[in-house]
Specification:
- With 332 residues, this protein is an alpha/beta fold.
- 34% of the residues lie in helices and 27% in strands.
- A hairpin with a 6-residue loop joins strand 2 and strand 3.
- The radius of gyration is 19 Å and the shape is globular.
- The two termini are 24 Å apart.
- The mean pLDDT is 90.
Length: 332
């Protein structure tokens, strides 16, 4: 991807998002929230008894990335795996309600739709249960996903969201990454653990600090460790840029040109970090697709992440919300 000769203004970048088509490929999840209160301990075991008052369902995993892109006003098409179960029905309904095309969602009766249930009382998560099969997608599934990605293009940007649940693994990752690269548009990866050389060919990656440490094989205890990790990830992947998210410490952006940028955390209040990484890659990729250079895309993603962590559960940041927190209301 080549940056424009004259960088676009923030206003122009945000305005340009609405006309973009983006594909999200990755591990679909359904987030189930059980809300209640605790006023006693169970007589059966030393655990709290939650009196349930409400249940909600939200898009999770890579599906939440698609929701984040759609919330910005861009068109989002989703490609992933699900089962043939009640959770899949709910997942498809939520995608449809968000206006996200899900004809690239491949159903496999042999595996359940990934379902994460969080039990929350008094604004605190009590426990979580997971129902999933993280085995690799079979050859038929790979063919369906790659074929769908190629048939539904062209796209202005492509996200590969790897949650380690089977979609971006084994033989599927090189096939899907190859199909994405053929499009000649920004391809951004939210990586999982393992050898990052497998992501070679991506335009950019957005690991968090722990993932960066695992990929590089050393702890990040200070600025030099962080710089070494950023440069190592660039070498491993051949990417144009690597954006390392660091929670309360903000973000660090390393570019192939040698440029290095540190962005302080934008959040002043943190209630829940669930889905913050999804928000980062959604905004970052949408901005790259709209013509922003990596630094501007990272700056806007940083502000969006600051909004996302202020809410309990997964949250999709809208364009109006993002504009409202930028200096001057809508950027320069």
């Amino acid at each position: 991807m080549n940056a424009p000769d004259k960088p676009l203004s923030t206003t122009a970048v945000l305005a340009g998002i609405a006309g973009r088509r983006l594909a999200v490929v990755g591990d679909a999840m359904l987030d189930h929230f059980v809300w209640g209160s605790v006023d006693r301990i169970s007589p059966e075991a030393p655990v709290p008894v939650v009196r349930v008052r409400e249940e909600t369902w939200k898009l999770g995993g890579a599906a939440n990335v698609a929701a984040g892109i759609r919330a910005l006003g861009a068109e989002a098409r989703f490609f992933g795996l699900c089962g043939r179960d009640e959770a899949a029905t709910t997942l498809r309904r939520l995608l449809d309600e968000r206006g996200i095309a899900a004809d690239g969602l491949v159903a496999d009766a042999a595996r359940p739709t990934t379902l994460k249930t969080r039990i929350i009382a008094h604004h605190q998560q009590i426990c979580r249960t997971d129902r999933e099969d993280d085995g690799p997608v079979d050859d038929a599934g790979i063919a369906a996903l790659v074929g769908g990605l190629r048939r539904n293009g062209p796209f202005d940007g492509i996200v590969l969201s790897d949650y380690g649940k089977g979609v971006l693994t084994g033989a599927s990752l090189p096939a899907l990454l190859g199909a994405a690269r053929e499009a000649g548009v920004p391809v951004v990866v939210d990586p999982k653990r393992g050898d990052y050389a497998k992501y070679r060919g991506a335009t950019s990656l957005t690991p968090n600090q722990r993932e960066a440490e695992q990929a590089c094989g050393h702890a990040i205890a200070g600025p030099e460790d962080l710089r070494r990790a950023g440069r190592r990830l660039l070498d491993l992947t051949g990417a144009e840029a690597v954006l390392i998210t660091r929670g309360e410490h903000g973000m660090a952006l390393y570019e192939e040109s040698g440029a290095e940028h540190h962005l302080p955390a934008a959040a002043t209040t943190v209630y829940d970090v669930t889905g913050a990484g999804d928000t980062v890659i959604a905004v970052y990729t949408a901005c790259l697709a709209a013509g922003a250079p990596h630094l501007e895309a990272a700056r806007l993603a940083n502000h969006a992440a600051g909004l996302a962590v202020r809410e309990l559960g997964t949250a999709a940041v809208t364009l109006d919300q993002l504009k409202a927190v930028l200096p001057g209301g809508s950027g320069r």
